[in-house]
Design goal:
Helix content is 33%, strand content 25%. By secondary structure, it is α+β, with helices and mostly antiparallel strands. The protein folds into 3 domains: 11-103, NAD(P)-binding Rossmann-like Domain (Rossmann fold), CATH 3.40.50; 132-189, ATP-grasp fold, A domain (Dna Ligase, domain 1); 194-392, 2-Layer Sandwich (D-amino Acid Aminotransferase, Chain A, domain 1). The strands form 4 sheets. Strands 13-12-9-10-11-14-18-16 form an 8-stranded antiparallel sheet. It has a 4-stranded parallel sheet with strand order 3-2-1-4, with helices on both faces. Strands 5-8-6-7 form a 4-stranded antiparallel sheet, sandwiched between helices. Helix 1 (20-28) links the parallel strand 1 (11-15) and strand 2 (32-37). The chain starts with 10 loop residues before the first strand and ends with a helix.
């Protein structure tokens, strides 16, 4: 129930594919938080009052969750919740299905913003530079190379490059085996540039660009997947920063989004292109909070009271690197201890199994320059990979003796 001393909400449910950063931000802001997510990471459990596993692996499965199942879980936690905050994969949560407010944009606004093909058409109408996107009935007009990606969500894991029609048809077949129909895939012009994003807060009346972030996509020392989201660096110093912020502020208002959201860009030699909009908390939450000295959960909640904070200034460079496993891994005590020695988050629970090409953990670094931050991340990733490689080698040697 509401805390009369604080004059605001107290008990929060965070639900989504991965909610660790939301839960820990809310905890730091003084809220009592319960979580339902797919990972139940060790650090999430430390921040949460209670947590429950969401046994879903795809955005399609998440969308099919019965609200009554969520309500039953809420009852099991034994708290009277003041609000629900959706995370990744649960952006379309129906606010009318629950006994407390849902602090998120309206589902119709989320749908309009998050569907990459619909967004491309809207950007075209607004005259905003963006890569050309093709619908399934335009395949004969494609100019290669192109990138194929799920129309909603994905984290880059399912993104594939095609340099000709034969490769594109092979990718469509591969993605069909992953459960994607042609109508659920966007075919987009592939261009070179630096991936970036703008983190925003918005009320019904105004919006604020909080930070410009460099995105780490398909970084070889973090992942084997060429387009996987591998983290970010805040702030991103670019001559286009102000232009990107202004455009993003207008876009989220145009889309009718509320609270925390992000606009992804590709910064090319000819300027920034809008790639997509994320109408939810983003993976950059940790680095934005650290670099800009702001609590994004508290600011997100304030948006629903019509309040925006003052625009923050960057105090340092904060970097997050998402390290993916290149093999199946069993999380034993020794591996967990090595992870915990680093500046890490998203700590997998003891005795869980990490699948190949699945996120293992997040590493962090904070420094006065971008290069120092990156160097520190690389060092942490290398130490973990060497430990894992040595463990595998030792086990193979033991079996051969």
């Amino acid at each position: 129930m509401k805390d009369p001393k604080r004059g605001k909400m107290q008990n929060i449910l965070a639900i989504g594919f991965d909610t660790r950063n939301i839960v820990c931000s809310a905890k730091r802001a003084g809220y009592t938080v319960c979580s339902i997510d797919a990972f139940c990471d060790l650090d999430l459990q430390e921040c949460a009052y209670a947590s429950s596993v969401l046994e879903c692996r795809t955005s399609g499965e998440l969308r099919q969750i019965d609200p009554n199942w969520i309500i039953a879980k809420m009852n099991d936690f034994g708290l009277e919740f003041d609000a629900i905050v959706p995370g990744s994969g649960m952006e379309m949560l129906d606010p009318y299905s629950f006994p407390c407010p849902v602090l998120a944009s309206r589902p119709e606004a989320v749908q309009k913003a998050s569907n990459k093909l619909q967004l491309a058409k809207r950007l075209e109408a607004l005259g905003i530079p963006h890569p050309r996107s093709y619908s399934p009935d335009e395949l004969d007009t494609i100019e290669y190379p192109v990138i194929l990606k799920p129309a909603t969500g994905g984290g880059g894991i399912f993104n594939r490059l095609a340099k000709n029609r034969q490769e594109m048809l092979a990718v469509l077949e591969e993605l069909a085996k992953q459960g994607f129909t042609e109508k659920e895939i966007v075919v987009q012009q592939f261009l070179e540039g630096i991936p970036a994003s703008v983190s925003l807060l918005s009320t019904k009346e105004e919006s604020l660009a909080v930070a410009v972030n460099e995105q780490l996509i398909g970084i070889p020392w973090l992942s084997r997947l060429p387009f996987a989201y591998c983290g970010n660096i805040t702030p991103f110093r670019t001559e286009y920063a102000e232009e990107m912020e202004t455009l993003a502020e207008g876009l989220v208002l145009e889309m009718g989004l509320l609270g925390s959201s992000g606009v992804d860009y590709l910064v090319t030699e000819n300027g920034p292109l809008v790639l997509e909009i994320n109408p939810r908390f983003q993976g950059s939450l940790d680095t934005v909070e650290k670099a800009m000295g702001i609590n994004l959960f508290e600011a997100h909640a304030g948006c629903f009271r019509g309040e925006l904070p003052e625009k923050p200034e960057a105090k340092l460079f904060a970097a997050r690197g998402v390290l993916y496993s290149d093999r199946e891994l069993f999380i034993d005590r020794k591996l967990m201890e090595v992870i915990l020695r680093e500046k890490s988050a998203d700590i997998p629970p003891h005795e869980t199994i990490i699948e190949p090409d699945w996120p293992l953990t997040s590493l962090f670094s904070f420094a006065s320059t971008r290069d120092e931050a990156i160097k520190s991340l690389e060092g942490g990733a290398e130490r973990l990979k060497i430990f894992i490689k040595d463990r595998i080698t030792d086990r193979v040697s033991d079996r051969e003796m």
